[in-house]
Design goal:
Two copies of one chain form a homodimer. By secondary structure, the first copy, chain A, is α+β, with helices and mostly antiparallel strands. Chain A has 13 helices and 16 strands. The longest helix of chain A has 21 residues, at about 315-335.
Chain lengths: ~425, ~425
Amino acid sequence: MMKIDIGGLKRDLEELGRIGRDENGGVTRPSFSTPDLEARAWLKARIEAVGLAYRVDGAGNIFGRLEGADTAGGAATGPGSGAAGADRGAPRPPKTVMAGSHIDTVINGGIFDGALGVLAALECLRVIKESGRRLARPLEVAAFTDEEGNLVGDFLGSRAFLGRLKRDVLEKELTSYGRPLKDILKRTEFTVESILNAHYAAPELEAYLELHIEQGPVLETEDVPIGIVNNIAGKHYRWCSFTGTASHAGTTPLELRQDAFLGLADFALRSTQLVATHHYGSMVTVGKVQVKPGVFSIVPGQADFSFEFRSHSAETLKTLERVLFNMADDIAVTRGLGFSSRIVDETKPVAISPRLTEILRAECQKLGYPWLMMPSGAGHDAQILAEVADTAMIFIPSPDGISHSPKETVRWEDLEKGANLLLQALVRLAT
Amino acid sequence: MMKIDIGGLKRDLEELGRIGRDENGGVTRPSFSTPDLEARAWLKARIEAVGLAYRVDGAGNIFGRLEGADTAGGAATGPGSGAAGADRGAPRPPKTVMAGSHIDTVINGGIFDGALGVLAALECLRVIKESGRRLARPLEVAAFTDEEGNLVGDFLGSRAFLGRLKRDVLEKELTSYGRPLKDILKRTEFTVESILNAHYAAPELEAYLELHIEQGPVLETEDVPIGIVNNIAGKHYRWCSFTGTASHAGTTPLELRQDAFLGLADFALRSTQLVATHHYGSMVTVGKVQVKPGVFSIVPGQADFSFEFRSHSAETLKTLERVLFNMADDIAVTRGLGFSSRIVDETKPVAISPRLTEILRAECQKLGYPWLMMPSGAGHDAQILAEVADTAMIFIPSPDGISHSPKETVRWEDLEKGANLLLQALVRLAT
């Protein structure tokens, strides 16, 4: 049985992790930043060193390809190219088995989120190639651009790979750097046009597998090294405000106040209690808070805040939207406040292919690895690709549940198990 | 019976209110700012125009003096000069009856908070002077420096007037402009030395009266034009933090979170409920909130906030300090958080002289004005001066309870009543 080399994978992760190292000990490597361009060059060199065929598409997605025995030619027409009818009637090239993730990071992130999935897939392809064994289907390692959404929202690369991006979003919106995407693209070989056309070069996918850190505490709490994801949560993001009346904190009796912050406090507690009690497994979070005027002796007249909830069920998401914002309105009326909100983002839950989870379970059993079927609360490129191919995700534990932080880490023995599981699943899917 | 001229007083208020008018339609005139220096020149001219003797002390406190019939000389040795024994045995000059407030403002404040008390007192002295009536005691109008605490904390001027300032505070601390006081003083005629010595020139006080807007909704709610203050609340200011663990909002189950913001939400609600239920009339406020890291998809790992409470009873303040911070500790333990806090400021409650409130009530009755005995939740120079003299405060309604805002206003008929009450009280005290 083939096995990955954890020592080599560790070296790769640590080497890539030094690119974009920031003053706070983390990695700051958003897509198309200077460190990201350096990381892209590093990854290209690694792909070529392993002997894979390097390819980059118009959205900056990077691929390393290992041809299969059945392969009729190079990159084939893909999922977004149905309208290009020239090849109709010609024999379809074999579908590609792909594995990957992303190498961009959040600001002051860790070295494993994303990079681990790309470099483990690269290591798997290296092992397969060096084994000399020729599998039926072609295999590709993929690194998708801007999974973290530092440019125009999450998943720019995988959405471009599928041809699901809209021109006006790319042309009009400011990035989270506060600059238009066009300006940022000027230092790259990519353009809005090339991003919109990226999907024409995409291969048709047999399956997409992604190995990732859990980014939560469940596997560690349960002491299990492998999570097989059966569902990626949908989410609902809003930016909300309670509005009351700013007044003097020394002279406005408690019963005459319209304290916007107390409205938010009430909503945060009651919404959490409701979700925890009646929708176990769903999430609700107030992450960002701005209280105005925000000084010592003034009762807050306004409280602006981010409010998000996630669920693995589309029906629960709909129920939560109705129940939670009714609750906010009720709190506003009771406390003499106003409440308003606007939707910032919304994604649907994605069910993982039962065929792939069955393969992953079977391979875990063969390898003797304990596993847990579990949902993913975080979004991943796999949920975008699920639209055109069977996708699956393998999680390994995040010690202390930490991610998006310089303290993000993994246990190497967990990573070895996760990468070996990925290897066996890829071999099986490509055979 | 003498009466003030509300037309003239209105003109004065509007004229002074144009100095330091900011782009948001409010007045921004912190002490020793350029607009404040302009306002000081304007006030000096008005004091001299009325025919009073202008004087400024080493802390920039401005006075206009009308000598009484019994006056032995000019400004006499004051409350802070007990150690200057040279005049011991000499006949003590008659004590001064003083009325005033302040002409500095908060950032983007209104034209009435402070200015009204100074200009109403000036109008009273003008009326008394023009009546030709010679009262026994000298009268002074006072404008104290930096009541709003934009420099080194509240009440710089009145604390200097009493000799209660410490050199290290003046020399070491940064002002709320972020600059040392010494730098700010460079553009004035004042120095740290002159501020520390200001009290040597202070006259001994018979009484201090301050007319002020209520800055709260009580008088308007009760539909009464005059509030006679019987107590100024003490306060307790802290800067507090709940600390938990920042974690991914999509992957950290609700029951495994250590959400610092929910700790704050719980504390804000429960502390408010406790004070409202068991300590009616006391105040508790969370005015400033900083949630970290403060982004959409991350469970807050830290929540920093201002926490203040006020009461008219020193005993209640002590009880609240014990009960509320025990509550915060309990919430922290229950939620797996840390809690810490540091005291930012603390003042004791001040009881108003019963002699003066009795005089004010009697004069209200004579004038036919409805009045309400009420506490002041806000701090005022009167509470500092209460240490050395009988002090009292007259409130007039704040429409909609608004102050520290460009929307701060008064009804002119209320102001006329308040100023006439001040006039009658001054005449009685000086006779």
